[in-house]
Amino acid sequence: MKELIKIGWQTMKKPSAYFSLGFLVVGGFIAGIIFWGGFNTALEATNTEEFCISCHEMENNVYEELKTTIHFSNRSGVRATCPDCHVPHKWTDKIARKMQASKEVWGKIFGTINTRDKFLAHRKRLAQNEWERLKANDSLECRNCHNFDYMDFTAQSSRASKQHSTSLADGDKTCIDCHKGIAHQLPDMKGVEGW
Amino acid sequence: MKTITNNLVKTLLVSILLTTSVFAAEKHVATLRGEVNIDTQVKPAAIPKVVNEDIKQTRNYPMQPPVIPHKTRNYEVNLNSNKCMSCHSRTRTEESQAPMVSVTHFMDRDGNFLAEISPRRYFCNQCHATQADTKPLVDNDFIDMHTLMKSKESAKKH
Q1: Closest alpha carbon to B75 in A70, A194, A181, A193
Q2: The dihedral sign for the CA sequence A137, A139, A142, A146
Q3: Which one, of A64, A128, A186, lies nearest residue B78 by Cα?
Q4: Does the beta-carbon distance from A70 to B73 stay under 8 Å?
Q5: What does the pLDDT look like over B24-41, one tens digit per residue?
Q6: Predicted confidence (pLDDT) per residue in B88-145, tens digit
Q7: pTM for the full model?
Q8: Which among B86, B87, B91, B133 is the top mutation candidate for probing chain A, defined by the most A β-carbons within 10 Å of its own β-carbon?
Q9: If you placed Cys at A124, which of A9, A63, A187, B65 could pair as Cys (CB 3.0 to 4.6 Å)?
Q10: ipTM of the complex as predicted
Q11: How far apart are CA B127 and CA A119, in angstroms?
């Protein structure tokens, strides 16, 4: 093992004996494009709704529940897909979230939520993960579409405009504090703040 | 003998009157279908808007369950959660400024007060309903007690 590493290191250390510098530079550049492009394409492919609901755990539970809500069907036809709310848009945050999501691959392989009953048993923990994430980033994924600066309080109902112009405006509350369970059904809410 | 026949005539008359009135009523029942036959598809009317003004409405009689003056789309009321109670429960009303559910809702059927809302009052929509902005199918000639008492009093005076 040690010998192998030694040989490898020495090969890497030596200057190239057969390939020209031009070939290495251009070749490295092209390989870089292919590698980086491929990486990003693969990343984006995992960032689509088709990918999410290719697992029955997502398609039969959370996706079915989303279908009845305003984030799926509404008067203007704008809709949110899974990654719009569950994956950050900024690259560094996205990579961080994707690394966390490798745990979900583990869950998929070992069938942690592969039946409805198992899913319901885990639902509170899963929901709490998302609530905590959105609370920590000040409901960033909501705000990607619902921009506070452009909210017209006069177009809102009196109750909504009162809440938004006070608690939300002064940063006391963030979207997820009140808008829990807007896209999926709620878990047992016993002990959850505000319920 | 005379009284028996009298009674017989009376019951006959009453039954004839009743059946005719039932037939008459059947012809003029107002339905959402209107005058369309049962075997033809009716073009459904547009779904009315739900009143969302947050303004309390008068109750027509003291025991009427108050109507809901706001939208309740996608409000979950089930084993896991009760969205209504996240504003209308005793502990939540200070923050929400929503009216607290009446104390009768804490009573079981024997009149004992429970610490939490009674299971028999858990499903809000059994009694409380949102209001749609529509014209009623039939005119309502319900007169509440106060109006009735007032009209009687004024009739006495004259």
Answers
A1: A181
A2: negative
A3: A186
A4: yes
A5: 455 667 777 777 888 888
A6: 999 999 988 899 999 999 999 999 999 999 999 999 999 999 999 888 888 889 998 8
A7: 0.77
A8: B86
A9: A187
A10: 0.75
A11: 33
